[in-house]
Amino acid sequence: MSSLILNNDRKQIIQEIAQTYGTPVYVYFADEINERIEKVKSIFEGINILPTFACKSNNNPHIVEHFSRNGFGTDIVSIGEYYVSKKAGVDDQKIVWNGNGKSRHEIEVLSNCVGYVNIDSVEEYERWKEYETDATFFLRVNPDVDPMTHHHISTGLKKNKFGIPVEEIDKILNDKNGPKISGFHVHIGSQIVDVEPFDEALSSVANLSRRYGFSKINIGGGWGIKYEDKELNLEEYKRKIIPHLEGFELVLFELGRYLIAPAGLLVATVQYVKRTSHKTFVVVDAGMNTLIRPAMYDAYHNMIVLTPTEGIAKADVVGPLCESGDLLARDREIQIPKVGSHVVFENVGAYGYSMSSNYNSYPRPAEVLVSENGSKITLIRRRETIDDLFRTIV
Ligand code: LLP
Q1: What is the pTM of this model?
Q2: Ligand 1 pocket, 140 CB below 6 A?
Q3: For the chain, which residues make up each domain, given as ranges?
Q4: Which of 192, 220, 288, 354 is most solvent-facing, going by the fewest CB within 10 Å?
Q5: How is domain 91-255 classified at the architecture level of CATH?
Q6: Active site residues
Q7: 54 CB under 6 A from ligand 1?
Q8: Partners of 274 in beta bridges
Q9: Which fold is adopted by the domain 8-27+262-389?
Q10: What is the SS3 assignment for 134?
Q11: Residue nearest to atom 23 of ligand 1 (CA)
Q12: What is the mean pLDDT of each run of 10 residues along the chain (394 residues)?
């Protein structure tokens, strides 16, 4: 399944949005979200699932609500994400709480709210003995599988901070003094484009579950999308992974990127085309404060030039921040855009706005949702103002 198709209708909608709400602006297309929801559901056909949306990927309550209306719960990692879920109308029983650093304060606030808790360590299990809760507990297993993705977003290797090594789970399961454990959880990383790591991890954790008599399993997220070349082959995933899930009464999953990344675009305005004797720089009004993935992971986001000039050149597309790492595309062969026109970065619906910051004291951008068939355009988060920068100053 390829990314969102930027046809002329959508280009026009983008121009309108940029004019009305200014730039930089994040734009999401409900049509694309719906298609992805349907695709995911079709992969799990015949299995009793509790689908959850990993709201760290996109924390706009309107987006989360869209998933909630389609039967999704949420995977949360903080009190903030719990309240995002509540604003979006997600039922407590459909909320899964993840994280390796659950503080006492967080446990006090959330223990009687969330439906599921994934315990990340023996030490966390010990802490839970001090609290009363009706939540259903899973153990996050670290299966020591290489997801073959960027090292920052790999989580299922022994050297990563997440999960309990298989040889240590008996310490918990032989202990009868703590919360009852109902299943295993496994999440080996994000943007995984090969089926093999999923196969290895899930066959091992599904077998482990059967050995311990667990009828529920949480298989995490991590499906890789097509940023530049490869994406996860979902037909192969269905063929190889779904059979591991046979016989489970309930399968939970936590997808973020696959569901929302391709539905989101970032629209920016070209400020300068700077040509030095060494290089061409296209300077836009979005930077690493708006979209940090290229600077942080060297991630590729395709850029579409809406109003090109005649020229084609290899250029760096950079933001306005005072830092050389502030770039959105490196050494990219592009049609040089007209100054003042708009450019569009693709696949930014996940880990785009949710990782944005106020670095260099820029207010954060607005977010806009385009409903089915482009029939309605809704501002779902206003642009921050200068006053917002000082909201927390005492
Ligand atoms: N479940 C757990 C326990 C997770 O830690 C994550 C993501 C997910 C589910 C959702 O994974 P997804 O389906 O979105 O791959 N900021 C990085 C990605 C960090 C992922 C963190 N955990 C990026 O921009 O690539």
Answers
A1: 0.97
A2: no
A3: 8-27+262-389, 91-255
A4: 354
A5: Alpha-Beta Barrel (3.20)
A6: 322
A7: yes
A8: 281
A9: Lyase, Ornithine Decarboxylase; Chain A, domain 1 (2.40.37)
A10: coil
A11: 351
A12: 81 97 98 98 97 98 98 98 98 98 98 98 98 97 88 83 95 96 97 97 97 98 96 98 97 98 98 97 98 98 96 97 97 98 98 98 98 95 98 98
